[in-house]
Amino acid sequence: GGGEKVSSSASFYHPTMRWDYAPKSYDYGVLEEAHSRDGDCASAVRDGAPCAHVFPEVFPGQRDEWRRRETDGLLKRGVTNNGRTSKHSWYAPKFVVEDDPTLASHYGMTGEKNRRKLAARFKRPISWGRYCREFSTDGRCGEPDGVAERAPAAGEEGDSYFMEGLYSGHFNHTAENDCDADPKGCTGHFVDMECEASTFFVQQSHWLDIALKSGDGNGDGDGNDPRSPSGGGGYGTDHRTQIIRAAHARNESVIFYFADTDPKKVPYEGTSFEFQRILLPDATAE
User: Given pLDDT bands bounded at 50, 70 and 90, which one contains residue 9?
Assistant: First the structure.
């Protein structure tokens, strides 16, 4: 395990082997920590430092990163591949496609004629802290209101998009969705993966002329990443999972990048929120 924050409950070495998702997909710092301690991650856990010996999988988009660390003597690849194949695609809940079957494929999304439809359907997710500041009655979530039970504690809670029993999430049409104010630039929201992941959403949405964009332009959580060519940015694994859970809790439409082998989709199978893959054109050599 690894990440920006470590505790015994998030440790590979914990007796119950509890697993929490790390804030980022490829935290090379945890491997470098193990290297600096001659492989003694147990001592790192005692010191509260993130530490790990192995990345079970690394996608091809990380090739330059791992090769540089191999050259520096920080990493050693044990195998060329682990036999696992995975396909990342666009997904939406089944109820969204049933409500509007045109959203089952890129044919119903491409072009200016579909811009308003996408901007109206796919709202921006609002973090817990921002909800309390901008949307709660008293501007601080001083009383439970059916969305937030209380104000977020200092630290990570304020950036969270869902927390069981405490914050069920909120989605809103922001300035990015306002097609009256910006008829040629308004967009619906797409939940993209973080920038270090192998995602092609920016290229796909651009060349298919689909008016979707990840992030809200307001610096909310990690959805406004300046490294993204779209000016929006992706979300880490934990925040993507929270946004999907919030959409489920609030019965909101959401469209997102997801891997077909990811077990986090299993709890929704057989429900109206079952993940439906969106048809996109086949990849070409270009």
Answer: very low
Token pair 């509007």 in the structure block, residue: 100
Q: Is 163 helix (H, G, I), strand (E, B) or coil?
A: strand
**Among 218, 210, 188, 179, which residue's Cα sits nearest to residue 96?**
188
E-strand stretches of the chain: 88-93, 124-126, 170-172, 188-189, 212-213, 256-259, 275-277
From residue 11, how far is each of 29, 38, 58 by CA, in Å?
15, 18, 20
- Tell me how far apart the alpha carbons of residues 227 and 124 are, in angstroms, rounded to a whole number: 20
Q: Where are the alpha helices (H) located in the chain, listed in sequence order?
A: 28-36, 41-46, 63-71, 94-99, 115-121, 128-134, 201-207, 237-250
- Number of Cβ atoms within 10 Å of the Cβ of 229: 10
- What is the tens place of the pLDDT at every residue in 54-81? 877 777 667 788 788 888 777 776 656 6
Query: How many other C-beta atoms can be found within 10 angstroms of the C-beta atom of residue 256?
Result: 24
Q: Rounded to an integer, what is the distance from CA 32 to the centroid of its chain?
A: 25
Contact assessment for residue 189 and residue 125, using Cβ atoms and an 8 Å cutoff: yes
Tell me how far CA of residue 274 lies from CA of 43, 69, 96, 263, in angstroms.
42, 39, 10, 12
Record the tokens describing residue 14, joined without a space. 């914990």
